[in-house]
Amino acid sequence: MAKRDVNVFEILDAQLADVSDSDTSGKERIEYIDLELLDGDEANFYSIKGINTLAANIELCGLQQPLRVRPVENGRYKVVSGHRRRAALQSLATEDPDKWRQVACIVERGDESPAMIELRLILANSDTRQLTSAEISQQVERVEMLLYQLKEEGVVFPGRMRDQVAAACKVSPTKLGVLKVIREKLIPAYLDLFNADKLPEASAYALAKMPETLQKDIFFACKGKVNGYALEQYRKQAKEGIPKPKKPLRCPPNGQQLCTHQAAFLRHDCNDSWHQCWGFTCCMECDRAMRDYDACPSACTKAKAAKTAKRAAEKDKTEKRREKAAAKNQAASETVSAFWHRVQAASKEHLSDREISSLTNGASYYHVDIRHMLDGTFKATDYSDGSCTYPRVDRFRQFCLDNHVSADTLLNLPAAPLAQWQPLDEDHWPADQQLVILRWDNALGEWYYGTARCVGCYSDLYPFVDTDGGCELEEPSHGEYDVGYWWMPLPLTGKENQHESDEV
Fold this sequence. Notes:
The chain has helices spanning 8-15, 51-61, 83-93, 97-100, 114-126, 133-152, 161-169, 173-185, 188-195, 201-208, 212-222, 228-240, 262-269, 287-290, 301-346, 353-360, 364-375, 393-403, 407-411, 494-503; strands spanning 4-5, 28-34, 38-39, 67-71, 77-81, 102-108, 155-156, 422-423, 435-441, 447-454, 464-466, 485-489. It is an alpha/beta fold. Among the domains are: 4-182, Conserved hypothetical protein from pyrococcus furiosus pfu- 392566-001, ParB domain; 323-411, no CATH class; 422-503. The strands form 3 sheets. Strands 2-6-4-5-3 form a 5-stranded mixed sheet. Strands 8-12-9-10-11 form a 5-stranded antiparallel sheet, with no helix packed on it.
């Protein structure tokens, strides 16, 4: 066979050329063939997905594009292009065989080599579907093999074979190189996941650039679940030499047992690019392992148990705080409620919402709280601050004046203790400047009284000053205090306070 220059796109253009229904003189023609005579091609590696959707479309609109087939032995045909359409038609034929028994097909006839036939199959199928990275990788590998086979058969391809493969598969040379590394360097376990479209291209490429032993360690630790960006970051760190801990980690609290969580450290670093730890920090001492927000999913069982116990302790502590707050709220609400009941009882008329508003000058929802307190429907759990459920000072004072009731009564304050007579001796002597009432016996069975201010101590000759005349009080005189003399404190009056300020 004479050698000839061929661009691989010429093959693609030729097999996609339109074919007339009446054209029976060439190598290709359209025929209606029994569906049972159509066989799939074992060399077809493309996945067959979305059959139900495609079948529904064909049932509604009919078969818009004929299948491309090639005659084989025993009157049967092999599908070159249209494996998904064939599967969809088979699905429809199970329900209505008479309608879908005959299929429009473009029949290829000629003496092309098996390599050329398979190449046409690949190019035909790749142009009619969205390929996964795994399918592109398999396609590239197969196309490269077929092109070299055609080259041995005498076909001359211009330029580098790599460029022809990239052009035929419609991928960039860079992507071609990436897929080649994946095919050649990825361990079989991960390659199977990649071919099954369960491993992203970025993750597969990062793994393929790692040593085989490290790939195996990662597969064992991660069970196939990895993150491409985190893997690439880990690979670079590993290549530069990840610093090793000075001592192997030991489990707290006693440190008797060596850490057996190294696989989890590796799984964590291969999936989390933001918080890689390299196994330097024990999970029990790691903040991300022990906290609830943005927690590390790869923490060891001891750390998870400790976090659970910590969460339970915090929950118990929170519950106790709530109980304490509830008890406080209960007591506070009862105090406020009792106050308003006393206010209502002291009011000349039944307290209206307007009167409550006049007393408090607060927001309406506080009036509702007060009303509920008076009605006995207030919930203590709703009470948090009594500042807005007490009346204003000026309004409260005016209410006391209008209703002739003391503030002590409304506030439920204890009565002030009454002043008591005290003996005028050294142990009970009044304070300096204390205003007092003095009482002494005249020896005739009668009592004398006088008001005075204490200006001296027990040993002074004249320790009291008459409040009326401002002169020294001769009675009682020194030496006679211990028997028959008493005193009682008096509050300062405004007049005397003014008198003191004038003197100053």
